[in-house]
Every structure is written in C-alpha cells, then in structure tokens.
User: Fold this.
Amino acid sequence: MIPAFGIGPYEFAYPLVLIGLILIPLLGVWYYFRLREKRFPTLSLSETSAFEGFSWKGTLRTYLPPILKLLSIACVIIALARPQLVDEQKEISGEGIEIMMVMDISGSMQANDFRPNRLEVSKELAKQFLDKRQFDRIGVVAFAGEAFTLCPPTTDYETIKSFISSLRDGIIQDGTAIGIGLATALSRLKDSDAESKIMILLTDGREQSRRYITPVDAAEMAKKLGVKVYTIGMAGNNAMQPLFGVLNISSGPNLDEALLNDIASTTGGQYFRATDNSALAQIYDTIDKLEKSEFDITILDRRSEAFRIFVLLAFIFLCVDFILKQTLLRSLP
Assistant:
C-alpha cells in the first residue's frame, strides 16, 4: 500500500504520479541549451537605435511560450495525482488521569551513581515521561526538608518541563521530608474530580522530618482519597556525594525501602528500585503502561476532490500561450 503524501490540507490519492514533476526542470534545461545551440542568420547594421524598442518582444517570444507550456504540463501532472482536500475532525470523550509527581531535591540527590547525578537524571526522565502522556493533568511537588508545589496540575506539558528544568539543590531547606511532600501533593488532588488520581514519589533517602505529618499518615490519607502512590527508590550500590564541598564515598544507599514499599502497598500502588539510569527509565515506562488514560476517539475523515482547479489552470496557460502567439507575440512570415 502506498503511504499517504500530503502538502498542507491536501493529500494525493496517487502520489507516485508526482515523480513526473521531475520532467519540468529537465525540459527547461533542455530548451535553454537548445536555444544556445540554435543558429540564426546575422545582418550587420551601422546603427541599431531603430530596433531598440522591439527587444522586449523578442525576449518574451523566446521564453514566455515554453514557460507557459511547462506550467500547463506541471498542472496536468498534479491533477493526475488526484489532490484531495482533507477535513479531519476528532471527537474525544472520556476521563483523564490526574498525576502529581513528587520529586526529591535534597543534597543527596547530587550523588553520581547516576550520570551525571541523581537529580539531573530524575529531571530528564520525568520530562520524558511527560512526552508519553496526552490527555492527563500533571503537576509537580518538590521536597527536601520541606515541600512546595512547583506546578499545579495542568495539561501544558511544555510549561511543566520548563519548571522541572529549573529544579536544583539548595533552593529549599535540606533534608528528606517524605510525609510533607506527599501531603502537599494530596492537597492538590483532594478536590479533583478525575476518575483516576495517582502520585509518583521519587526519593533516594529515608524520612528525616518529625514535623506535621509522617509518610505513613500521608499514605493513609491517600488511601481514603482514592489516590494511588507509585514509589521509586533511587540509589545505586555505591555513590560519591558532595559533603562540605568534598566528594564523600557512601558505603551504600541510605534508602528506606520498607517505608516506600509500605506507602505503595497501602495505596494500591507499587514500589520500584532504580539502581542506574536505564533502570529508572524502565520504571517510568512501566508506570506509563500501567496508568493509561481511557478515551473514546472518533475520527471523521472528509475529502473533496481538488484536481479540477489544476486542470483549469493547465487550460488557461495553454489558452494564454495560443492568444499571445496570435497577437502580441506573433511572428512575421
């Protein structure tokens, strides 16, 4: 089956016919060299001022007729390719998913067991996850020792990605307040009327805050609100982390996997462990497949034939060529 080929709102039923347009420049080159090789009789005159007013007519007589013929041939080829005006409409119905991404930006996210470091990799793969979504409202919460809403739920994915790109270590108090991060995200989801609501929690540490709300309490709140939490533990086996401006070798991950697993199981989500860049990419891909929006899409494809205009243009070019030859560009016998 020949794939569809289109230009703007037009598609061609027989696109291979358009290959014939290659003949147009070839014929133009052939005619040009034919003129150069053609021999004309010469006549020597002492003065040519009497003929100067007629030079433009000779130029038109030489070049305009072949140009008109080439244009008519081009129009015929396009008409044979059968151009069609396509009016495509989509009718979309269904419920999207509301997603809050809860991202750890604590100092330990500068560890280099992920290249170039945990924070930069988490930002890049979060943006790639956004590229796979279509109809969902997505927001972002960033946390360290405290939490804040980086972007409320929206379908403007380019704006979300620009906010994620701006994340960096040190913009809020350091630490790991997982419970506060979850609670902040829940405050954005509690009034949502979306059919499905989820959170994706990414962290590389363990709860260090004893203020406000614990991660277990936040998980129970999420369960009552019908919010599913997918948790991602991000840590390799050994990493070098910046400590007072000097690289410090960590003997192993400071990751509370039991807590992250408990949060996920309480809310009906899943826990994943990412040990390197590719593993984290696979986790985001898995979550993307698990949580897909369900939409009913009806596509209306209406086409109208547009070849007639090109047939008419070809006829007009030939008529102009004939009329000019019989009048303005007529050669004397």
